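Dissemination and training. As part of the outreach component of the grant, students in the summer workshop were shown how a complex can be specified as a set of sequence lines and then modelled as a single object. The example used during the hands-on session is reproduced here so that future cohorts can follow it. Participants entered these lines:
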Amino acid sequence: MEILLIDSILRSILVGSLFTLIGIGVTQTVAVTKIFNFAHGELVTIGAYVACLITKFIYYPLNLPIAIISSFIVPALIILLIDEVVFKPLTRKGATSLMLMVASFAVSLGLRYSLYIITTSQRLLTIMSEISLRTIYTIGDGRITNLFLWAVPVTLASVLLLEFLFLSTKSGKAMRAVAENVSLARATGINVDYIRRLTWIISGGLAGIAGAFWSIYTQTNPEIGWVILLRGFAASTVGGYYSFFGTIVGGYLVGLSENLIMDLINRFFGISIMYKPVLTFALMISFLLFKPTGLVLEDVNLAKILKKIYLYWGK
Amino acid sequence: MAVDILGLISSFTIFFSVYAILSLSLNLEYGVAGQPNFGKVLFYSIGCYTSGYISSVFLLYLTGHMVAIGSSEAIVLRGSIAESEPLINAVAFISSIAIAFIFGALAGYVASFPALKLKGDYLGITLLAAGEIFRIVIRGQESFSGGTQGIAGIPNPFIWISDVKLRYLSYALICLICAICIYLYMIKLVNSPYGRLLESIRDNEMASLSFGKKVSWIRGQVMMLGSGFAAIAGVLYSYYSGFVQADAFLPVVTFVVWVMVFMGGTANIKGSFLGALVISAIDLATRVVSFELQSKLGTMAFHIDYLRYIAYAILIILILMFKPSGLIPEKPIETPAWSAINEEKSVGGS
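and obtained this result:
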């Protein structure tokens, strides 16, 4: 069996983009609200279902853009509602972060099984997106699909947009301040509730977009969010939970380890591809144990790196 | 169609005992010693797999039947051998408990290393991921775990009793005795000087360290004890259901144990028993309701399990919101001095 090297790399980039989208949401919520949000995975699922349903009613060429937009909006609204009903009252009552984690696990379970009930009663338990994977270019043995051409640019665009938000807008700076120290931020007159809502919208929306892409990649069922969630956590862990740039690196690293590295291990050591998640979880645990601050230092950001590259080439 | 009352009682008792042991062990780890174990399902599944494997070793390999552990041949053989040789099966059951406790304790000791470095949520996520790793790895070990098919037909230790009701009733009695023994042991432990040491580590690690306590070793001990008990719960359950399969060991199991601990009250041993009672009552109620509905309506629109999990989710959120200390909050430790003061009070009052 020959290894499809370029195909493997392309798959790593595609899946890595999705993990990055999810990981950014995890990092954002951990930084601003201090919650390890297990319900994040269910937002991915909801996004996937919304995208699948949209593609049943709206046809090419508008189907994918509208699917992406609506799968941004619906999970964002749902997580806002959940925050108002569950997380905010709990935080106000002084729940420890562990209690919040258990509560988010409960929310995740509630959402997942509600989805099960809704989808089985509508006979939609596993559905496929109407958009099918098509190969557009081939590079050697690798295929660039229509999904690749959408997912990677959308991820990069949202990363750049968020980078701009954090560095150049007032809300973004306030968000970083809240992440650093909530009481201090409140004392300087930052509207913490507004920042919190903004964070939920960003993280929920990005999770939904990831779900929309994931629904094209595989079948959709209520479990996909849970399966992909721990990858998002891994991306966030590798990035160090507080670094935006680190999360991007982490997302692609997890994508790389699940596809390219797993393929290589499979090729040379004959270990079944079934153990793919083990690699990710092992990566996550080893980072938690040996380098809990993550891969990337906090003050590195895309703008600085671009500036460095620009200066280097300018000489 | 009438509901089989005796069968319900025995199944309720078995579920209650398994849940009670699990929640007691988590309460020891989290409530008393302050270590959030989000990988409870790992230690539970160690117990389940141990019983599957040990029962096969005793019933198949030692009697000279070399068949694959997950094959349908093995299922039939295990049943027939257990029926004809009840003594071997009893030995298999008892040694399963002992070996599961040892393996669970070893795994717990290994799991206490991350607990030294990490705190709170981070430890929780680490153990959760460890549980998932274990599940995926063991699913691939065909010769040990039966692969994705799992191991079916683990014979009940009372399979020689031909009356099914009596068989499960006597098994339920064994389970209940196990649970009560662990409960009494835990009460003794928590009220002993050792229990006070554990709570001191939970409340202020630095202070206990400065008194010369070996905090890391004691944490290891707690994880060993808790994980060993969780493995025993796994053994009791798998000898009842007769079935071990990797996809049953999802993190949801851990979550249910957490619901019990938070509901009953952290650091309160009686609370864990109460929590287990409530959850197993919900379990039983949903199963009876689903059974009745199914016999009335024919096929169901959806599985009743879904509603049960939603009920758990709502329940825990309500508990966390309105009664975060649980139904029975933590009580002062019953030291000799405390009981003497209490006696004096009651004497003085009368």
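The longest strand of chain B covers residues 151-152. Students were then asked to discuss how this feature might be tested experimentally.
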